[in-house]
């Protein structure tokens, strides 16, 4: 059963001072790879960054008060089957998608999921990291965000040395949301079509134990390496999708915590997975199997969401070399309109 409403530590390494100046802008849309030139298993857009929360309404209020945007879709599941996520049948959850003012065709969302059966649970010391260490926003001036943080009494920490995003050191600050997720805000000049004076979702920071192995895996599903660098904890890399270059994955190599070997469950609190668009999930699955570059691949599954405009999604869950969950979702290119700037 489901009902719906439509929308009315951090462990994050600082950027190396030697990081290069801001790179040049991304190629114009005409210079992007034609869809026919891309393998079916290459993602073409970032759809959402998942954050599991103990209180969806509190989390949504927090993120919307600081970063603006709109809740565009809300789904309530009371008897779900999430066996493919390791949680079994009879699960219950509330999901809300928060979009910045670029809207769902032009930008990814923050997907807030509040699990009630089973409940969202904190990570434990014996679990390996989910791989996702921070969610990142960009804004044309940090003063826009600091004024809002100070007005709402939310604590934040300036990052004097800046943070590297897409190969350049950016003025930055960090804060923590009510579920302990680290949020980064970096200063990047706005593009002509950007909503003015509002933070826009721009990147997700990730950790890995072997950067070369990780890069081979992600480039195998369509990401390209935009920049390489160094941080105090190890080598770094910035990855973008050629057809969605304003969002990046910022990787840093770090050793795994001692004794942390257990797999975190899909209802673990905080940042847990990322969803990417492919033209057709079943074709992507067949292409991955034929290609063999990332090893064994599970079968696609249908995730019903009868209370949403789409009615549900066909998805494919993948796991990167360190176990981070990457989700393929059916979303044709005709349904998205990603910008090319700022890169």
TrEMBL record:
<feature type="region of interest" description="Disordered">
    <location>
        <begin position="1"/>
        <end position="39"/>
    </location>
</feature>
<feature type="domain" description="VOC">
    <location>
        <begin position="45"/>
        <end position="188"/>
    </location>
</feature>
<dbReference type="GO" id="GO:0004493">
    <property type="term" value="F:methylmalonyl-CoA epimerase activity"/>
</dbReference>
<dbReference type="InterPro" id="IPR051785">
    <property type="entry name" value="MMCE/EMCE_epimerase"/>
</dbReference>
<feature type="compositionally biased region" description="Polar residues">
    <location>
        <begin position="1"/>
        <end position="10"/>
    </location>
</feature>
<dbReference type="GO" id="GO:0046491">
    <property type="term" value="P:L-methylmalonyl-CoA metabolic process"/>
</dbReference>
<dbReference type="InterPro" id="IPR037523">
    <property type="entry name" value="VOC_core"/>
</dbReference>
<keyword id="KW-0479">Metal-binding</keyword>
<dbReference type="InterPro" id="IPR004360">
    <property type="entry name" value="Glyas_Fos-R_dOase_dom"/>
</dbReference>
<dbReference type="GO" id="GO:0046872">
    <property type="term" value="F:metal ion binding"/>
</dbReference>
<feature type="domain" description="VOC">
    <location>
        <begin position="200"/>
        <end position="331"/>
    </location>
</feature>
<dbReference type="InterPro" id="IPR029068">
    <property type="entry name" value="Glyas_Bleomycin-R_OHBP_Dase"/>
</dbReference>
<feature type="compositionally biased region" description="Low complexity">
    <location>
        <begin position="13"/>
        <end position="23"/>
    </location>
</feature>
<dbReference type="Pfam" id="PF00903">
    <property type="entry name" value="Glyoxalase"/>
</dbReference>
<protein>
    <recommendedName>
        <fullName>VOC domain-containing protein</fullName>
    </recommendedName>
</protein>
């Amino acid at each position: 059963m489901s009902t719906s409403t439509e929308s009315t530590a951090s462990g994050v390494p600082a950027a190396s001072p030697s990081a290069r100046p801001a790179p040049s802008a991304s190629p114009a849309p005409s210079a992007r790879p034609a869809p026919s030139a891309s393998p079916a298993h290459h993602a073409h857009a970032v759809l959402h960054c998942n954050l599991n929360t103990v209180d969806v309404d509190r989390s949504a209020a927090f993120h919307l008060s600081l970063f603006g945007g709109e809740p565009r879709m809300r789904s309530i599941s009371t008897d779900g089957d999430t066996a493919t996520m390791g949680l079994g049948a009879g699960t219950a959850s509330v999901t809300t998608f928060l979009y910045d003012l670029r809207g769902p065709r032009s930008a990814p969302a923050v997907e807030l999921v509040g699990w009630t059966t089973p409940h969202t649970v904190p990570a434990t010391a014996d679990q390996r990291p989910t791989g996702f260490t921070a969610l990142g926003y960009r804004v044309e001036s940090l003063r826009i965000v600091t004024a809002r943080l100070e007005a709402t009494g939310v604590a934040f920490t300036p990052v004097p040395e800046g943070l590297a995003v897409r190969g350049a050191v950016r003025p930055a600050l960090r804060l923590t949301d009510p579920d302990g997720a680290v949020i980064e805000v970096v200063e990047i000049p706005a593009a002509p079509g950007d909503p003015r004076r509002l933070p826009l979702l721009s990147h997700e920071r990730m950790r890995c134990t072997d950067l070369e192995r990780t890069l081979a895996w992600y480039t195998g599903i369509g990401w390209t390496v935009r920049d390489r660098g160094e941080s105090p904890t190890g080598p770094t890399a910035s990855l973008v999708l050629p057809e969605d270059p304003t969002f990046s994955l910022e990787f840093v190599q770090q050793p795994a915590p001692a004794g942390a070997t257990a797999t975190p469950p899909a209802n673990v609190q905080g940042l847990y997975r990322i969803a990417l668009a492919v033209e057709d999930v079943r074709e992507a699955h067949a292409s991955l199997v034929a290609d063999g570059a990332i090893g064994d691949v599970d079968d696609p599954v249908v995730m019903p969401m009868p209370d949403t405009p789409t009615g549900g999604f066909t998805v494919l869950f993948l796991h990167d070399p360190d176990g981070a969950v990457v989700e393929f979702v059916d979303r044709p290119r005709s349904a998205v309109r990603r910008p090319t700037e700022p890169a």
